[in-house]
Amino acid sequence: MRYAVLIAALLLGPSALASDYVALRNLAAQTSLKASDARALSGSALPLEGRETARFLRKGEEFDQTALQPRAVLERNQLVQLRFRKGSLDITTEGRVLERAALGARVQVMNLASRTIVTGQVVSASIVAVD
User: Which of 32, 55, 88, 93 has the smallest count of CB within 10 Å of its CB?
Assistant: First the structure.
């Protein structure tokens, strides 16, 4: 892994290892970010709102977009409504989320009526659309 970073730095120049932000306080993993949590180091840095940390960040630590992930709207074991729609057929039932997921992400859900595991897309904080 060290060699991959070194090769990237040599081929792409110093910008390959450049950080976008610096943490202004200790940030635990899965912390929803606000503008006051970090300072942008470059003018091209994206806004932090709607994102969360993917790992622990120490105060003063520089980090880039790889340390961030979309904010999760579903938590593990949360009850949700499963919806299946095809043409005029519309089936709705209750399910339990098996993993954390952000809006628009694909997630596995256990159908509580049949105990089968299905995969769907997160539509809102309480609805998963099943394929």
Answer: 88
